[in-house]
Amino acid sequence: MTAGAMGTGSTASLILSGAWFRYDLLWVSLATLPLFIIVMDSASRVGVLYGNRGMMTVMRENISPYLAWLIFIVHIPLHFLPVMGNMSVMTSSFLALLGVYPPGIAGEAITNTYQVYEIGLSLLFAVTITWLMVSGSYTVIRNVLAALVFVLFLCFCVVAISGFSEWKAILYGFVPQIPEPLIAPDSGKVRSSLSSIIAIAGGVMAPSAILGSY
After folding, report:
1. Does residue 15 lie within any of the structural domains?
2. Which of 59, 127, 160, 179 could pair covalently with 193 via S-S, beta carbons 3.0-4.6 A apart?
3. pTM of this prediction?
4. How many structural domains does the chain have?
């Protein structure tokens, strides 16, 4: 499911749902799969019909310029939180490879230092990605991403095969249910299964996927 949605938000929602509620929310992915297929198929058909023109251009020319501007204005702020999440995943993953972990894991003493690392890496990643995009290296990025998607697919296959040892729990996860909220042992925060369900369903209808999937 997350391989199809191809977003860090969807990936994080599904991974955390599995870590917190195991297989109990598998039915949500199954229930939202038809909607996901319809969204991606519709966006792909629009791309085929209108060639290299973007969704905003299609809306402006075929529906109304006001609608295109309205979606554009709404779409810009909607990108801030996903981009912040994307950058956080990138920086924390990179720092973890170097043996540098968040304060909750490594201790409160490095709180300020870790934030400095995060800000510095975020700026470095942003500048590097922008330079690659404007310097004509889009083809290279596309090929790298295609290779990473293939690696991601192989990893999911390994995880899926290893999970067959718990086939009874997996089958039970396809039965619609709403697990009881969990209390995080480290912070006392409540982890609601309803929030996970909303997050999984929201990843299927992500505006970025709909407006930019072709």
Report:
1. yes
2. 179
3. 0.61
4. 1
